[in-house]
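Per your request, structure below.
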């Protein structure tokens, strides 16, 4: 680009170089809980393909947390399903797609077994029938002597 004044004098060439960035950053979740877990504390790791990008993250239902860094930790989660989401914005303002990870927390203690047919009154029967309310539990029994 050159400028010319009213007298016809031509100025030096001037220019400006710039880059056009239309590529959004990509977040990839690299580690975290999966399936059903018994630990209520979650640690999630992720990577971004643009080192200058700002990452936001959240658990679905919460607000986005700005400047999220990996690994992110969520202690003491309630029982049930949880979904972590992360997205990144680069310096040009390009917003990337949301990366997500879904898992469930199941920290419930097993429900104690209950006799399915409790005997009525005193009995000398040494067997007790129990109904287990969870598929996974460890049952220990002992009969004391008087």
């Amino acid at each position: 680009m050159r400028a010319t004044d009213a007298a016809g004098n031509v100025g030096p060439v001037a220019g400006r170089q710039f880059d056009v960035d239309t590529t959004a950053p990509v977040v990839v979740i690299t580690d975290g809980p999966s399936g059903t877990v018994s630990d209520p504390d979650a640690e999630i790791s992720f990577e971004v393909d643009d080192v200058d990008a700002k990452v936001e993250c959240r658990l679905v239902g919460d607000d986005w947390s700005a400047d999220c860094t990996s690994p992110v930790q969520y202690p003491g989660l309630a029982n049930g399903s949880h979904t972590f989401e992360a997205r990144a914005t680069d310096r040009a303002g390009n917003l990337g797609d949301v990366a997500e990870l879904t898992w469930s927390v199941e920290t419930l203690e097993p429900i104690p077994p209950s006799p399915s047919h409790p005997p009525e009154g005193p009995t000398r029967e040494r067997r007790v029938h129990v109904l287990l309310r969870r598929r996974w539990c460890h049952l220990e029994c002992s009969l004391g002597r008087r």
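Residues 110 and 137 are 6 Å apart (CA to CA).

Regards,
D.
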